Amino acid sequence: MTADPSFKVYSNLKKTTSEEEREQLLENPGFGKIFSDHMAMIRWSEKKGWHDAKITIRQPFQLDPASAVFHYAQEIFEGLKAYRGKNKCILLFRPEENASRFAHSAMRMAMPIIPKTLFIQAIEELVKIDNKWIPEGEEKSLYLRPFMFANEAFLGVRPAKQYIFSVIASPVGTYFRGNGESMILWVEEYLSRAIPGGTATAKCGGNYAASLEAQALAYKNGCDQVVFLDVKEHRWVEEIGGMNIFFVLKDGSLITPPLNGSILHGVTRSSILTLAKDAGLKTKECAYSFEEWKKDSATGCLKEVFACGTAAVITSISQVRHESGEFTIGDGKIGPIAQQLRGKLIGIQRGMIHDPYGWVHTLQL
Ligand code: COI
Question: Of 100, 106, 111, 305, which residue has the fewest beta carbons closer than 10 angstroms?
Fold first, then answer.
């Protein structure tokens, strides 16, 4: 097995996007629709280990139709953002956390573990070469998507012996339609997303595929996102399709479902818990039922609910719909606690306020 490979940067390749076209695209990027000019790519094989690390022009993969990923879904991914800082700096938010979770996901999916340094280097090289794709503006950033999949052409069911790790970059605005300030949630009382002991804590494409029928139901019912309940009793609130959830009670305390084996360990979730504690708020990682949610909303005990994640940052939930009714949270607007935490989080991520936690990873151009 070789040591970590060094990166080849094929920067002599022709840029595909003109400055004028790029500026136009960056004006209103939406989410995940436009992409930067380059990509990072590293191969892994049983014989060579990690090898052939490079930055190339962004292009389609050439894959054998028998590649294991198409048949047995050996695939994992991450999401993080790059921001433009002062003095020609680029800021990444907690990339080490993404590297650790990627390693956890790889282990669960019987895939090779990419060293943290190589994972971060791939991101850094891509961000450096595509730094002009980091949009300016309060709600904008460059969303980075590291991912890995099995590309061995073999139809037997066993861990593949060949993989591709890659990173692509997409300039983004808010994840949700409208102003991205609030959304409507659909509570899914029958379909499940992932199970403890299954792949629930791995960030693998399969978990997201399993959430899509319920997500389609959410859209059908005029909602933005779906929230799942626990698999066993369909009683306890767990996770929104692609993000975690927080409840804010009248006394200012925060509740979020515990990491009980069926919830993804969100980087934004853990950052919010830290920020809230340090702001003197009471936080509880504990089970919260759909029944309590309805009751606390009706009595006025529940003041705010918000979703959090890399893509969503902190997005308030204004309304909740379910099979037998609907209810509004607070006054249906972004609440003061969500607003306060969002301001603090965004401020740190963008280098506008001091980062006492060492979360921000700075890259000098
Ligand atoms: C993220 O917030 O990065 C996610 O993974 C959510 C979604 C876009 C899949």
Answer: 100
Reference 112, options 205, 47, 198; nearest CA is: 47
Q: Is the pLDDT of residue 46 over 60?
A: yes
**Distance between CA atoms of 97 and 203, rounded to whole angstroms?**
13
Radius of gyration for the chain, computed over Cα atoms and rounded to the nearest angstrom: 21
DSSP 201-240: TS-BHHHHHHHHHHHHHHHHTT-SEEEEEPTTTS-BEEEE
Cα distances (Å, whole numbers) of residue 293 to 43, 193, 214, 329:
47, 20, 20, 10
- Compute the distance from residue 98 Cα to the ligand 1 centre, in Å: 12
Q: Say which range, 145-149, 187-191, 274-278, 327-331, has the weakest mean pLDDT.
A: 327-331
Contact 245, 273 (CB under 8 A): no
Structure tokens at 12: 């002599």
For residue 318, which of 308, 338, 297, 304 has the smallest C-alpha distance? 304
Mean pLDDT computed over 232-258: 96
Alpha helices for 147-222 (secondary structure H): 205-220
Tell me the one-letter amino acid at 241: G
Beta carbons within 8 Å of 120's beta carbon, 6+ residues apart: 95, 96, 99, 361
Whether the CB-CB separation of 327 and 319 falls below 8 Å is answered with yes
Q: Residues lining ligand 1, judged by CB closer than 6 Å? A: 79, 242-243, 309-311
pLDDT confidence bin for 15, thresholds 50/70/90: low
SS (H, E, C) 330-363: CCCCCCHHHHHHHHHHHHHHCCCCCCCCCCEEEE
Identify the residue whose C-alpha is closest to ligand 1 atom 9: 242
Q: How far is the CA of 22 from the centre of ligand 1 (A)?
A: 24
* Helix 267-278, helix 336-349: angle, nearest 10: 110
* Band (360; pLDDT cuts 50, 70, 90): very high
User: Which comes out higher in pLDDT, residue 66 or 332?
Assistant: 66
Fill in the DSSP letter of residue 134: S
